[in-house]
Each structure stands twice: as C-alpha cells, then as structure tokens.
C-alpha cells in the first residue's frame, strides 16, 4: 500500500510517502509561515523521488489541526483536491497525536494569550486527555504537564509517522467534501464578529 501523509498545521511542514510500510520520502522542515509556497514544490519532489505518481496513492492521511489556521487550510485543501479528483480515501489526523506519536505523552501548541491546544496520549496513541483549547494552567491539564520543565521553544515533537499511519490505516475514510479543519477555537475574525454582535 502507498500512502501520502501531510502535516501543515504547525511551522514544521511534513510531507511523507509511505510505500509498503516504509518511508520512501520525507520532507520535515521548519518553513515558518511559508507553507503555502512550499507545499506544491515539496509534493512534486516527493513523487519524483519516490518514483510514484499521485494516482498511485492508495490513501491520504492529513492533519486537520489544531494549529496554524492558514497552515491547516493549505494542507487540507491539497489533500481534499487530490482525494476528490483521484478518488483516493482520505483520513483526518490530530496534530497533537502526531506530535507525541514517538512514545506518547502530552502535546501543547501555544495558542497565545495564555491558552494552549492540548492533548495527551499513551504509548499506543490512545487519548488520555482529549484535544482541547484551554488555559495553560487549567486544573484538568495539570496532571499531564510538568510546568517546571515546559518551554515552547525547546520542547521538540517526538514524531513516528509510521506508527500514526499504522494506527489509522483501517479508519473509515471521510468524504472529501465533508472533512473539516479541527481548529478547536474560533478564528480571531469570528471572535470579533461575535463580540460585535453582543455589544
């Protein structure tokens, strides 16, 4: 089986092609806010280097969030167009699960203003603390995070793409038209609109 994996939910763009249980190609690089211009060249390189064509892909695994609103939209749009036009099954994946897929644990993404996107998983990637948008010091989150040692700048994700794909390869695929970003919160524009309506 040949799979395409796309994660553009954070500054670290990851595109991988898995061929019969082995990584045939991987791009894993911090591109900052340059995901939109990098995505297509990286995909082109992925297919050339793995000597495959898009129509050869049996399933697409795409990270739907939480994370960067723009990044999520870029990766999800590419995945949805490929899935629809080539009739390829598409499977949504949590960015937080991917971040700790190496050995389980708690993933935190800085959501600003004292909030985080948080999720905790065991070594088999079973959810222990559901993906949430919460205050960093939320009492329900405290058992899962060592605040004394936590620093967004130094904590690096421990990613095992093959483990994530293996866990989800038998998930029921989603209609490309129905798959949606998992932002976990309203965009700033939506929040402002809601506040304007209330006031």
Overview of this structure, please?
The structure is a single chain. The protein has helices at 35-50, 69-86, 95-99, 161-168, 188-198, and strands at 2-7, 12-19, 22-30, 59-65, 90-94, 105-112, 115-121, 127-135. The longest helix has 18 residues, at 69-86. It is 29% helix and 30% strand. The strands form 2 sheets. A 5-stranded mixed β-sheet has the order 3-2-1-4-5, sandwiched between helices. The protein has a 3-stranded antiparallel β-sheet with strand order 6-7-8. The model has no long low-confidence stretch (mean pLDDT 89). The chain has one domain (2-198): Nucleotidyltransferase, domain 5 (2-Layer Sandwich), CATH 3.30.420.
Which short descriptors sum up this protein?
199 residues, alpha/beta, Nucleotidyltransferase, domain 5, 5-stranded mixed sheet, 8 strands
Quick summary:
By secondary structure, this protein is an alpha/beta fold. It has one domain (2-198): Nucleotidyltransferase, domain 5 (2-Layer Sandwich), CATH 3.30.420.40. 29% of the residues lie in helices and 30% in strands.
């Amino acid at each position: 089986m040949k799979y395409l994996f796309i994660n553009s939910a954070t500054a670290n763009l990851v595109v991988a092609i898995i061929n019969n249980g082995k990584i045939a190609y991987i791009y894993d690089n911090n591109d900052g806010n340059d995901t939109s211009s990098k995505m297509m060249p990286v995909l082109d390189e992925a297919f050339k280097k793995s000597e495959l064509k898009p129509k050869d892909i049996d399933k697409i695994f795409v990270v739907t969030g939480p994370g960067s609103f723009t990044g999520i939209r870029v990766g999800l749009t590419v995945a949805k167009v490929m899935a629809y036009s080539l009739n390829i099954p598409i499977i949504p994946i949590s960015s937080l699960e991917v971040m700790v897929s190496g050995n389980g644990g708690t993933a935190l993404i800085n959501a600003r203003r004292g909030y985080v996107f948080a999720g905790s998983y065991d070594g088999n990637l079973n959810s222990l603390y559901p993906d949430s948008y919460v205050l960093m010091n939320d009492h329900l989150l405290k058992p899962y995070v060592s605040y004394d040692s936590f620093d967004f700048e130094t904590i690096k994700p421990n990613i095992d793409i093959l483990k994530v794909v293996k866990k989800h390869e038998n998930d029921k695929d989603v209609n490309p038209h129905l798959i949606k970003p998992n932002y976990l919160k309203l965009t700033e524009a939506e929040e402002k609109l809601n506040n304007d309506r209330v006031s």
